[in-house]
């Protein structure tokens, strides 16, 4: 009986991991399309992103329920427990990426009105963050600890540096050009 129980647990854990990959794919696409909607002035893409939030939220809920079920009924230990707790953490972060993507999509239309267009300042940050999400999902799927560590250290630091430089630049520009404050403030929110 024990081998069947372990086999059933392994199947459930594998299905759970597939749901995480699906969520990562959904929110990665949401972020890409949110940035595209911003850079291309595309309201249809922005609407698509907003509508996809329900898909991401539903996947997040399903994953959470599956994790609780596995914890309660299987009482995993060691590696399996670490996997499930990692999934819970990763899922929360992915869901937040989806929410931020919606914010970017909604902000895009307001970015076009005014004397300053911050979109070029945001492109490199956006490109790097999209790659980080793709690499993170690859590290998760492949259990590639080296890639995961590189993302957390090197890649994250590059994005943080780009964000800090953008903040400094925008603050200086806002002081000298008060008319750009609304767009610059939105650019700061998107950069975050």
Can you put this structure into words, describing what you see?
It is a single chain. The chain has helices spanning about 1-40, 45-75, 80-110, 120-140, 145-175, 180-190. The chain is an all-alpha fold. It has six helices and no strands. About 90% of the residues lie in helices and about 0% in strands.
Stretches where pLDDT is under 50 for at least 5 consecutive residues are none
Radius of gyration: 20 Å
Apparent shape = elongated
From N to C, what is the helix and strand string?
HHHHHH
Alpha plus pi helix count: 6
Strand fraction band?
A: under 5%
Distance between the termini: 51 Å
Q: What structural class results from the helix and strand content?
A: mainly alpha
Helix content: over 70%
pLDDT averaged over residues: 88
Number of E strands: 0
The major sheet is characterized as: none
How is this structure best summarized?
This protein has 192 residues and is mainly α. It has helices at 2-40, 43-74, 78-111, 119-142, 145-176, 181-191.
Annotation keywords:
single chain; 192 residues; mainly alpha; 6 helices
Produce the secondary structure layout.
Blueprint: H1 2-40, H2 43-74, H3 78-111, H4 119-142, H5 145-176, H6 181-191
Helix pairs in contact: 1-2, 1-3, 1-4, 2-3, 3-6, 4-5, 5-6
């Amino acid at each position: 009986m024990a081998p069947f129980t372990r086999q059933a647990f392994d199947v459930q854990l594998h299905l759970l991991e597939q749901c995480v990959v699906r969520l990562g794919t959904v929110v990665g696409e949401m972020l890409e399309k949110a940035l595209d909607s911003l850079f291309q002035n595309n309201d249809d893409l922005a609407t698509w992103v907003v509508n996809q939030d329900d898909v991401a939220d539903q996947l997040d809920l399903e994953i959470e329920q599956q994790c609780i079920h596995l914890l309660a009924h299987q009482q995993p230990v060691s590696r399996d427990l670490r996997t499930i707790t990692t999934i819970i953490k990763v899922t929360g972060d992915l869901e937040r990426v989806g929410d931020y993507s919606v914010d970017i999509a909604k902000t895009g239309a307001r970015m076009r009105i005014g004397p300053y267009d911050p979109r070029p300042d945001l492109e490199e940050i956006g490109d790097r963050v999209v790659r980080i999400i793709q690499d993170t999902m690859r590290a998760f799927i492949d259990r590639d600890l080296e890639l995961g560590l590189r993302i957390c250290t090197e890649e994250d630091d590059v994005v943080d540096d780009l964000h800090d430089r953008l903040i400094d630049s925008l603050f200086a520009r806002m002081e000298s050009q008060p008319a750009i404050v609304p767009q610059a403030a939105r650019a700061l929110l998107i950069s975050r």
